Amino acid sequence: DTGVSQNPRHKITKRGQNVTFRCDPISEHNRLYWYRQTLGQGPEFLTYFQNEAQLEKSRLLSDRFSAERPKGSFSTLEIQRTEQGDSAMYLCASSFGEQFFGPGTRLTVL
Amino acid sequence: AQKVTQAQTEISVVEKEDVTLDCVYETRDTTYYLFWYKQPPSGELVFLIRRNSFDEQNEISGRYSWNFQKSTSSFNFTITASQVVDSAVYFCALSGSYQLTFGKGTKLSVIP
């Protein structure tokens, strides 16, 4: 399969724990994006990479959130000290033109 | 700031009916792109179309058609002869450079 992949697909954690998600983009795409989607809403932009450089971060991305894209390939999104408000679907997209989305990681914080 | 409004929260149609999903946008950019994505119950966002702000020509792809009117800042999406498989949430989105700004989506239910 040559689409965007994300792991894990589901994550349940207790409040205060750290979680890390992984995104593998389409191989020839140099741009990678993270979005967050809550129930009944459209996806909201979190951050953007061009190759390994993180070029933009949304104000939604608090200090507890960090994203990396070492070597400009896969990316990780880490949330430290999770809160119940972090429960959402975390979507990754990659592009060379239009953005193609992965299946998402659904996070539930208990 | 960019904004996308999808005023229709939910629409139900009977199979084979035509349906139009509305999208109105706001932007100060002179060059921008408009998109439609489909999110079926499985959850994955599926890219449908991208249009740039300089191309107001309407587009048809099978049962799907898009009407872009810059004068009214609208980019509406019509499904002709709807089918049950069209049931999904449809998102309109706007981009000035890289990040996408999405509307809240319209949930379309096609009843057999």
3D structure, described in words:
The complex is a heterodimer of chains A (110) and B (112). Chain A has strands spanning 5-7, 10-13, 19-24, 31-37, 44-50, 53-57, 65-68, 75-79, 88-95, 99-101, 105-109. Chain A is globular and about 40 Å long. In chain A, the strands form 2 sheets. In chain A, strands 2, 4, 5, 6, 9, 10 and 11 form a 7-stranded mixed sheet that branches. In chain A, strands 1-3-8-7 form a 4-stranded antiparallel sheet, with no helix packed on it. Chain A is mostly beta strands. Chain A is built from no helices and 11 strands. In chain A, 0% of the residues lie in helices and 52% in strands. In chain B, strands 2, 5, 6, 10, 11 and 12 form a 6-stranded mixed sheet that branches. With 112 residues, chain B is mostly beta strands. Chain B is 0% helix and 53% strand.
What features would you highlight for this structure?
A: 110 residues, mainly beta, seven-stranded mixed β-sheet, four-stranded antiparallel β-sheet, 0% helix, 52% strand, B: 112 residues, six-stranded mixed β-sheet, globular
Encode the helix/strand succession of chain A as letters. EEEEEEEEEEE
Largest sheet of chain B, in brief, is: 6 strands, mixed
Q: How many individual helices of chain A?
A: 0
Sheet having the most strands of chain A: 7 strands, mixed
What's the alpha carbon Rg of chain B, rounded to whole Å?
14 Å
Beta fraction of chain A: over 45%
Based on the structure, what is the oligomeric state of the protein chains? Answer: heterodimer
| Unreliable sequence segments of chain B | none
Q: Termini of chain B, distance in Å?
A: 41 Å
Q: Which structural class matches the secondary elements of chain A?
A: mainly beta
Tell me the overall shape of chain B. Answer: globular
Q: What structural category characterises the helix and strand content of chain B?
A: mainly beta
Spell the H/E element sequence of chain B.
EEEEEEEEEEEE
Dominant shape of chain A? globular
Helix fraction of chain A by DSSP (H/I, runs of at least 4): under 10%
Pair with the biggest interface: A-B, 25 and 20 residues
C-alpha-based Rg of chain A, rounded:
13 Å
Strand content of chain B: over 45%
Global mean pLDDT of chain B: 94
